[in-house]
Design a protein that fits this description.
This protein has seven helices and no strands. By secondary structure, it is mainly alpha-helical. The chain folds into two domains: 56 residues, no CATH class; 52 residues. Helix 3 packs across helix 4 and helix 5 runs antiparallel to helix 7.
């Protein structure tokens, strides 16, 4: 539970582009707190400290997939918004299924990338 209390606000901040260099190292430091809590029987701060110890030296290795996932999701959002803005108004008025299908498809792509 302590992991979620710390990680969720940091993940929300990481969605913004500017604070990403500040929140990404903190998110990487707590990535292994749940496994260390379960495997080593640690709780609370001890699990967070152990996670920081385990991540020391491997942060760049773990950072690349994390950053690529964030950028991939961001690129899908940008592409979706550009395409939806370029659709003719007739599609929005007469054939609403086309924009809705595209919105559903990009939502599905984001879920696939996240998982």
């Amino acid at each position: 539970m302590l992991f979620n209390v710390k990680a969720l606000p940091l993940q929300a901040l990481s969605l913004l582009v500017l604070p990403l260099p500040f929140t990404l190292p903190m998110l990487l430091a707590i990535q292994l707190s749940v496994p260390s809590a379960v495997a080593e029987g640690l709780s609370g701060r001890a699990a967070l400290e152990r996670s920081s110890q385990l991540m020391r030296g491997f942060r760049r290795t773990y950072a690349w997939p994390f950053v690529c996932l964030l950028l991939g999701i961001r690129l899908i959002d940008v592409a979706r918004n550009l395409l939806l803005a370029s659709l003719p108004p007739r599609l929005w008025a007469d054939v609403i299924e086309v924009p809705l299908a595209f919105i559903a498809l990009t939502g599905f792509l984001k879920i696939v990338i996240i998982r």
